[in-house]
Amino acid sequence: MNVNRLVRGGRRLALGAGSMAVVMAGAGCGALRSAPTPVVSAPAGLTGNWVVRVPNADGTSRNTYFDLRQVGGSITGTIRVTQFFYRVSESTGDERGFTITGTMRDGNSNRTVRYEGRLAGDTLHISTRRRPQDKPTEMIAFRGPAGEGALPARLPLPALHKVRDNGLARMPPMGWNSWNKFAGRVDDAAVRGMADAMVSSGMRDAGYQYINIDDTWEGGRDAQGNMVTNKKFPDMKALADYVHGKGLKLGIYSSPGPNTCAGYEGSYGHEVQDARMFAAWGIDYLKYDWCGARTLYTDEEMPAVYQKMGDALLASGRPIVYSLCQYGRLDVWKWGPDVGGNLWRTTGDIRDAWDSMTRIGFGQNDLAPWASPGHWNDPDMLEIGNGGMTDDEYRTHMSLWSMLAAPLLAGNDLRSMRPAIAEILMNRDVIVVDQDAAGKQGTRAWKSGDQEIWTRSLTNGDVAVAMFNRDSVPASMTARWAELRITTKVAKVRDLWQHAEVASARAGHEAMVAAHGVVMLRLIAERDNVP
Ligand code: GLA
């Protein structure tokens, strides 16, 4: 913990000072200025803690640390880049020209990075490429204070116990999240604008409730160790009041690691303090993203790490939905509820592209048994309206997520949606399927080539049927209830995108399904009061 505090203190000090510039060139990088670091000492050669600081617009900076030790032609040490902390595993050369490779264990695989560099006066000129065919990204590192950027000590983990169910999210959460559209550009004004738009567009009345701020709101910690916001979020409590005033709820984001995926402050070692702070601000939802925790803990330790925050949220006394984000590792669906989780990401990040959306969505079949009221599989946020897919593809996205009882977290700019996008996000017939009280996740009932039919049991014996055409040309499809093993006595069938009853569909339904499109139906069971 001492190391942790020292490091954070050092970073604040460094951020406040001077005016040296770092120029990054190469693939798409313009000129970037760094915050300066006072020269602490200047040992010969490469030995020292070298820092590249790239300021973010919010008053924080993105720092890369090369903590190196050179003995003749041998270079050892560590490299820290946002959430990643590598050990130098190979080196060639010396201060006149060197190459270092950093390696880290991440779950069941290894990650590596490779840098080339040379000493120029008392700065380090370094370059790296993401892929061999890329242009190099070049950077200049200055000497930083010893210990700054060092990995904090690994804290012991609590014994496992079952965290009490918080009683929240009886239906899959619905709302909006900033990451897919805004990433690091989210700020107070955007969040307020989104809350306004959620009301004026009718989305609130259609069931959307949470406005969730993702990564990059964090500003570090104050002298008492309290998490503070950065310049983009001048007053989180006031923002929560504003969002609540609209009849909505506010969500936030953190990591169990020392830093988040974008390299911002995480909750490591401050879980109870942060949960209290979130409660004091009026936060209603926390997405807790593994990120920098990978440098301290193994995947097998995830349950204990997540349990810590599960306990802390309960102890805060405020009802806060707990969303686990660790990309579906270690079969999270099996232990998510035990650590207090209301939902858990089942995969890596979605992209606004047909391939990404369908690979994730159609890959969820085996997880159906793990969904139930209060505990949901989360195939990631919606990309509907972000521009990378056609409207038919977005209808498939909305339909598939609803068949999966998935959280419906819009990821587009709600202030400027086209009417067709608003219609997709606010299709109440489809939303009712997603929010069905029985909370049973749908599964694939039939497949032939690029066509598949999924079914989902609903309350009262109703059944949702989604006929998906994954082909890039339209296809004629027939759904036969018996073949889909639907035993419900069907009284009526409603087409959930046409918003109309389908004639003579007692035994099945035949339809032309658009390229990458869907026909989604609700089979309404015969009931005593339905003649
Ligand atoms: C990870 C998560 C994303 C998003 C970013 C933020 O990649 O999976 O959903 O939260 O981090 O840095």
Provide a descriptive summary of the structure in words.
The chain is an alpha+beta fold and 531 residues long. The protein contains twelve helices and 26 strands. The chain has helices at 2-16, 179-182, 188-200, 203-206, 236-245, 271-281, 302-315, 332-335, 354-361, 391-403, 419-425, 428-434; strands at 48-55, 61-71, 74-81, 84-94, 97-106, 109-120, 123-128, 137-143, 174-177, 210-212, 218-221, 227-229, 249-254, 285-289, 321-325, 343-345, 376-378, 408-410, 443-448, 451-457, 463-469, 475-480, 490-495, 500-501, 508-513, 518-525. Strands 1-2-3-4-5-6-7-8 form an eight-stranded antiparallel β-barrel. Helix 10 runs parallel beside helix 12. The structure holds alpha-D-galactopyranose (GLA). Alpha-D-galactopyranose binds next to loops. Alpha-D-galactopyranose is lined by residues 179, 214-215, 260-262, 289, 325, 349.
Outline type: elongated
- Rg from C-alpha positions? 26 Å
- How would you characterize the largest beta sheet? 8 strands, antiparallel, barrel
- Detail the poorly predicted runs: 1-36
User: Which ligands, by name, code or SMILES, are bound?
Assistant: alpha-D-galactopyranose
How far the N terminus sits from the C terminus, by CA atoms, comes to: 69 Å
Overall number of strands: 26
State mean pLDDT (0 to 100 scale). Answer: 92
Number of helices: 12
Strand order of the largest sheet: 1-2-3-4-5-6-7-8
β-sheet strand percentage = 25-35%
Structural class label: alpha+beta
**What fraction, in percent, of the residue positions are helical?**
10-25%
